[in-house]
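BUG: 3D viewer hangs when loading the predicted structure for this chain

Environment: internal workstation, default settings.
Expected: structure renders.
Actual: progress bar stalls at 90%.

Input used:
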Amino acid sequence: MEESIKQLALISSVLGGFSFTFLSAIITKDTEKRIKYWLIITLTIASISFLLGAVGWTLMDFNQGMAALNSHHQMLVKVLIFGLISILSSIGLSGWLNDRKTGITTSILGVLALLFLLFGILSRYIEL
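Structure tokens produced before the viewer hung:
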């Protein structure tokens, strides 16, 4: 389990970096569209979730001998899922900054990715 904990910490930190980069780009975009507010919120949630996951799994790696690690791991998995849902929502909403056609396309792709994440990948491994 030690190697998988390190991998989860790495994945969380990389996704957190992407989320923060996207957040920085959205904040500096000069637009008055209301969707900018929702993108900032979802990207902030994603960044925070991934950061917490990375820190949590890194600390968990230091405490390999503790018996309560499984419940800690399950909580961190939920934080990771929350971050993934937030970043997929942000990607889905991002097209609305451009125009209606792009917004509809990115929203459909975001929903499909979210459904695949939850039911195609994660449903086998975790209890929601």
